[in-house]
Model the fold of this input.
Amino acid sequence: MFAVNELVVYPAQGVGKVERVESQEIGGTTAEFYIVRILANNVTLMVPVANAVNVGLRSVCDKEKANFIMDSLADRSDFTGYTGQNWNRRYREYSEKLKSGDLADVAYVLKELILIGKDKELSFGERRLLEQAMGLLTLELSFALDAGQAEIKKQIEDLYQDILLEKDEEPEE
Done:
């Protein structure tokens, strides 16, 4: 299904490159594995070929989907915010969305956390999730749109410039 040197996405880890397909014997059974090196942190994963789709391994999104994601980030009309939810419940929900492997879920988490951060201080865990979502999203979009990761991050920051500028202008306590 995936070819050697193909760029793929592994949920919660991000974009990786299929380095090789390897056979290994485990418990008396021979199985094929994709050996995937995650680009962001150089971690190597062994993903069973027979189970790759079930664990969420997928190709990098195409340009059309990437543009759709960028448009969805600009649209704030679906912002639900944190009404009635404590940070712990949001953290669990957002963690699950990042693990889903769906790029739209990752974009949702990023947008929600940036918009929540406009009105209140994010917890340490929420800030970590925001950074993780930003990294996952910008790396995949950079490959899909054939642009630098820093350029994509700047485009996203520009979408929320009004919020991020307000944060920068707040006096230090």
